[in-house]
Write a structure and sequence with these properties.
about 160 residues; alpha/beta; 5-stranded mixed β-sheet; 3 helices; globular
Amino acid sequence: MAGRIEARLKELGIVLPEAAAPMANYVPFVVAGNLVVISGQVPLKDGRIAVTGKVGAGVTVEQGQESCRICFLNVLAQLKTACGGDLDRVKQAVRLGGFIACPPDFTQQALVMNGASELCVAVFGDAGRHARTTIGVPCLPGDAATEVEGMFVLAG
């Protein structure tokens, strides 16, 4: 039975990937009461990291935005698992955190992270509007260009 969010994903032409297994010693998400915290997701697509390198040094801002979009799709896949398969249980996106691999003089991290933020709002509407932190880092696991984590509130 497809719910409202599944219908929206279909309307957007999005097929969620399978939720990826953790790359190290951590869990992909934690549910604490009605709060779900999703561990950082890299731009994994078809079993490999789709966008590698540094944004602003070989990776364009537009490629970085697409990388964040792919990361957010992986966040959604984990969130769907945390919701028992029902994304309609998501009441609010509370916070997204973005990590952008970039050189020290790169200053457009916020613009890059918009790839994830805009998709969050496209999927959840007003409930997708969230607080956010975005930082530049020297490198990420597997040489990923970006990583995105999330925090969401679920309906009982």
